[in-house]
Amino acid sequence: MKNLVVGFFSLVCAVAVADDIRYAKPDGDDTKGDGLSWATAYASPQVAVDNCPAGGIVYLAEGVYSNKPPTVANSAFLSIEKNIKVYGAGRDKTILKPKDATLAYGIFLRYGTAEVHDLTLRNGTTTMLRQTGGGVVENCRLTGYYSTRQRDFPYGVVWFGNWGTLYRCVI
Asked: How far apart are CA 149 and CA 129, in angstroms?
């Protein structure tokens, strides 16, 4: 009986963890996919983040993500406003490349324990990375950003207020 209870508890924990994971890949589908597996992955990293519960993980497959998110939170290509972790397939394998020149930020971290790992953010027109609540950015490449207008906050990396960590990144 003791083994049965432990086995049931382990199964319940494994299911709960799987429910906290979302997937995105460049050829995914934001309207038909549910993001719960690679087979049903979203196309937009932002949709995966929006549908990931707090405490969860978003995995981004290898490839280039240049689609405009269906909802643009905080004028960012990728806005993270809760405690989640986003993992790319590798710094030179998962590339966020915004097409929309009106976006103010590439990645906007607004929650103290949000994390972004193993991806490249390139070729935007304003600020690459903005942080206002802490967070971690690790093993990322931030490159190719420029601004032609002062009002666009033309900064490479903006770290406001609370502490955060930029670790093993190439800027």
From this structure: 17
| Dihedral in degrees, nearest 10, Cα atoms 48, 49, 51, 56 | 110
Compute the average pLDDT of residues 82-92.
95
pTM: 0.81
| Cβ proximity of 140 and 91 under 8 Å | yes
Closest-CA residue to 134 (of 157, 154, 104, 161) = 161
Residues 6+ apart with CB under 8 A from 158: 127, 129, 130, 131
Kindly report the number of other CB atoms within 10 A of residue 133's CB atom: 17
User: Per residue in 8-52, pLDDT tens?
Assistant: 444 434 444 668 999 999 999 999 989 999 999 999 999 999 999
Output the CA–CA distances (angstroms, integers) from residue 65 to 81, 88, 166, in the order listed: 20, 11, 22
Which residue type occupies 65? Answer: Y
Closest by CA to 114, choosing from 95, 88, 137, is 137
CA–CA separation, 165 and 159 (whole Å): 9
Cβ atoms of residues 79 and 47 within 8 Å: no
User: Pseudo-torsion of CA 149, 123, 40, 136, nearest 10°?
Assistant: -80
